[in-house]
Design goal:
4 helices; 14-stranded antiparallel barrel
């Protein structure tokens, strides 16, 4: 069925530019500060940080300047690790995310637990060797999700009364839509899995790389209770809409430049995601300033690009630049704060005047008291 919001021109343009075929498929909500929500990239990243426990929040807002009600997302994350056997760790985490979009309050709620096993592959010897180590982590996610919508807030093109010169929206007119076979919300169980390798090769040199698969059970997120018939085309819609599996490949690290006492490090990174018909490739590099005389303070600046498959015709797409993402961050003692801004550079810039989204992240790390050193590479943002 063709459902139109009050600002239908923007919604239609947005949909055609973001999707490359007529049968759009549901996609995951995601952040531009990918590693500020590590479990959403890969559950195997849980507990991989220098410290015992970590708690944090994320917030993202976009399209607010172009729609009656924009898209808003928020997350709460808590994770940590415990020592097991002689050299290994078990990472445990909890995360919750709420996303709401548009005037009909279409929302996604997700809660779950993450876990991994971090197996040490190599550990250097002596005072210098304590900063040389390698680990392999395998992890999973068990969660519950819910999709919901307020059907009563939707408006339709058929309710635009053109009797007068300028026309007006008349809620008394029939929409022509059959809403008896819909539900307000739907819950589902979810399962993810992932693998990560990471290593440190000095105090400020490290690398990591991983692969994850989300939605292994391909849960049904449809809000229809039975198949309906489109009043215009006469075609029958499906009451089943399965969330496609998302495949993620990611990597990055830290490279100190200018000698062992240099305060400058480079933070390269890449995150590639494939979900149904959607492809997204994110690459970038950050610069971190951390004076050797003051390890409690670090400043970060990064620039990332986002390339996605963009609409060309009703059955074709091409890969193109969607946005440039600017990252700013500060680490002070146990606090980590990040801010990012997405500047749209695709065809959507003609609609939103390059105004994309704002995003914030704030974390606090509890140092703990580990009996042995655990090296962790700096994540890319």
């Amino acid at each position: 069925m063709k459902l139109f919001f009050k600002h239908s021109l923007f919604v239609i343009s947005l949909g055609f530019l973001l999707l490359f075929n007529q049968n759009s498929t549901a996609q995951d909500q995601r952040y531009s500060q990918y590693y500020s929500a590590p479990a959403r990239v890969n559950p195997a990243l849980v507990g991989i940080f220098d410290g015992a426990y970590r708690v944090g929040i994320n917030y993202r807002t976009q399209w607010g300047a172009n729609m009656t009600k924009g898209y808003n997302s928020g997350s709460l994350t808590a994770d940590g690790k415990i020592t097991v056997s002689k050299d290994d760790y078990v990472g445990l985490g909890f995360n919750a995310m709420y996303d709401v979009a548009g005037v009909a309050d279409y929302s996604t709620t997700e809660i779950g637990i993450d876990f991994n096993y971090q197996k040490k592959l190599y550990q250097g010897k002596g005072a210098i060797g304590k900063h040389y180590s390698q680990y392999l982590a395998a992890g999973g996610h068990l969660g519950f999700g819910q999709r919901a919508i307020n059907w009563e807030k939707l408006t339709y093109a058929q309710q635009w009364d053109s009797e007068y010169q300028d026309g007006y929206y008349n809620p008394g007119l029939t929409s022509g839509e059959e809403l008896r076979n819909v539900r307000q919300n739907r819950g589902y169980a979810d399962l993810h899995a992932g693998l990560v390798w990471y290593g440190t090769f000095g105090k400020r040199r490290g690398a990591f790389g991983g692969f994850s698969i989300s939605h292994l059970s391909r849960p049904d997120i449809s809000l229809y209770t039975s198949a309906g018939i489109d009043s215009t085309s006469g075609t029958r819609s499906s009451q089943v809409e399965r969330l496609p599996m998302r495949f993620t490949i990611h990597g990055g690290g830290e490279i100190q430049v200018g000698g062992r006492k240099s305060p400058i490090s480079l933070l390269p990174g890449i995150v590639m995601m494939f979900q149904g018909p959607s492809t997204e490739i994110n690459t970038g590099i950050g610069i971190k300033y951390q004076a050797p005389s003051n390890d409690n303070l670090a400043l970060r600046f990064g620039l990332w690009s986002r390339i996605v498959n963009q609409y060309v015709s009703i059955d074709a797409s091409t890969m193109g630049m969607d946005a440039l993402v600017i990252h700013l961050g500060i680490d002070y003692n146990q606090f980590k704060f990040g801010f990012s801004y997405d500047a749209t550079v695709s065809k959507l810039s003609a609609i939103n005047n390059t105004r994309g989204s704002f995003e914030f992240a704030l974390f606090y790390i509890f140092p703990g008291n580990f009996k042995r050193m655990m090296g962790c590479p700096s994540l890319a943002n």
